[in-house]
Amino acid sequence: MNEKIVHVVGGGLAGSEAVYQIAQAGWDVILHEMRPFAKTDVHETDKFAELVCSNSMKSVDLKNASGLLKKELVDLDSFVLKIAMKHAIGGGKALVVDRESFSEEITSIIESHPKICVKREEIMEIPPNGIWIIATGPVTSEKLYNWITNKFKNGAHFFDAVAPIIDADSLDMSKIFIGNRYDRDGKDYLNCPMNKDEYLNFRENLINADVVPIEKFDRKFLFSRCQPIEEIARSGVDAMRYGPLRPVGLESDGKRAYAVVQLRRDNYAGTLLNIVGFQTRLKWPEQERVFRMIPGLENVKIVRYGVMHANVYIEPYKVTDEFFRSKSMKNLFFAGQITGVEGYVESIAIGLYVGRNVVRILNGFEPERFSNDTMIGALIDYVTKTDNLQPMYANFGILKRNL
User: Fold this and answer.
1) Which residue of 60, 92, 168, 258 has the fewest C-beta atoms within 10 A of its own C-beta?
2) Helix (H, G, I), strand (E, B) or coil at 91
3) Residue range 47-71: average pLDDT?
4) Which own/partner pairs from 252-258 qualify as long-range (CB within 8 Å, at least 24 positions apart)?
5) Burial of 227 by CB count in 10 Å (0-12 exposed, 13-18 middle, 19+ buried)?
6) Residues with Cβ < 8 Å from 292, sequence gap 6 or more?
7) The 177-178 sheet, strands edge to edge
8) pLDDT score of 150 more than 60
9) Tell me, what's the pLDDT at 321?
10) What is the residue-wise DSSP string for 352-365?
11) How confident is the model at residue 1 (pLDDT cuts 50, 70, 90)?
């Protein structure tokens, strides 16, 4: 095997970024993607960089940690983020993208790149020769993850959930108003207001609805940023009103509702909508029954149901160096959410970091460490130096930790 050919396993956000960075630097790279021949619990297509959960990449405001992270990636010429911004649709201060056109363009560019060879196959273990990057994300195939845990005696998981997507034509718009939270002129969200009785009845049905049984499910492994809506509801009567259903900043005819369910466009045309914050593991018939209690959604058609799945990751502190290079297997790197970062843009950032450093190594240079006073550098520092790691997303807390 040619030692100068790089192999990237996984065509998600991190894998797509790493592949492109390496190919653009003039090196041959093979992208191994198991879809469509091997399925995952959450992917709907065989396209690269598919957004399997929300279509929001969070805030672009520089006063927000996620916004700062995006600014750094723009300065570093991130391929995936550039395409995401090209396919942006209305989302207030968030970068919200048309997930279908975004993935299609990423796939087209990668498949047509002269330095990239795409192989549709499942990789079950990593050989000792060649340079390899595992960027298989939180839904790494069972066979490869078993190889990782056996090889490095390390592995962890948490439970994550996906929100349903609905057909916009099935809404009753007479009960819904348009507006953005904190932006009187914004028109990016549809808002379904609830009075107190409607809210309490909805909550009662939600917390008592049947859920899909998950093997080895434990609430302590739920990721705080993607709590299923039914788990939020169980935590307190007003928990949803202080979370995704908070009415603050949303008024219709000068009146504030008791609670508000928001809908956000999932594609350019606005024919598909995401129920914001409604990650769930309710059984599919229960999703239809309970969510049709929301004003305006009485006859809603769900085109993709919410699901829950286990997200796996390694603990870099125990497995890799600060460049996400295996301590015991020097030809192997890890990138993306499998490294313990959480979030779309965070995954892109690690893909870029690893891709750039593989290029440096191929060119005969030492890998480069990003400064701790950057958001990317602080994120890398946190996940590579924290024992018993819990998944981490960009936030100012980790940045201040290093100043």
Assistant:
1) 258
2) coil
3) 92
4) 252/177, 252/179, 252/191, 252/193, 257/193, 257/194, 257/195, 258/193, 258/194, 258/195, 258/196, 258/198, 258/199
5) buried
6) 298, 299, 300
7) 177-178, 189-194, 259-265, 272-275, 165-167, 302-304
8) yes
9) 96
10) HHHHHHHHHHHTT-
11) very low
C-alpha span between 220 and 291 (Å, rounded): 26
Q: What is the mean pLDDT of residues 55-82?
A: 95
Domains and CATH numbers, the chain: 6-157+312-400 (3.50.50.60), 165-306 (2.40.30.260)
Q: Is the pLDDT of residue 156 over 70?
A: no
Per-residue pLDDT of 248-277, as tens digits, reads 988 887 888 999 999 999 888 889 999 999
Joined together, the tokens standing for residue 351 give 């893909």
Long-range CB contacts for residues 145-151, cutoff 8 Å, separation at least 24: 145/312, 148/314, 151/125, 151/329
Number of neighbouring beta carbons within 10 Å of residue 8: 33
CA 168 from chain centre, in angstroms, equals: 23
Q: What is the pLDDT of residues 113-125, one digit of tens each?
A: 999 999 999 999 9
**Count of residues in the chain:** 403
Which residue reads 């302590």 in tokens? 220
**Whether 19 contacts 31, CB under 8 Å:** yes
Describe the crossing of helices 79-86 and 13-24 by its angle, rounded to 10 degrees: 120
Angle 56-133-100 from CA coordinates, rounded to 5°: 30
Strand order in the sheet with 116-120: 116-120, 29-33, 6-9, 131-134, 332-334
Helix (H) or strand (E) run with residue 313 in it: strand 308-313
| The pLDDT of residue 218 is above 80 | no
Mean of the per-residue pLDDT values for the chain?
Answer: 90
Average pLDDT of span 204-225: 71
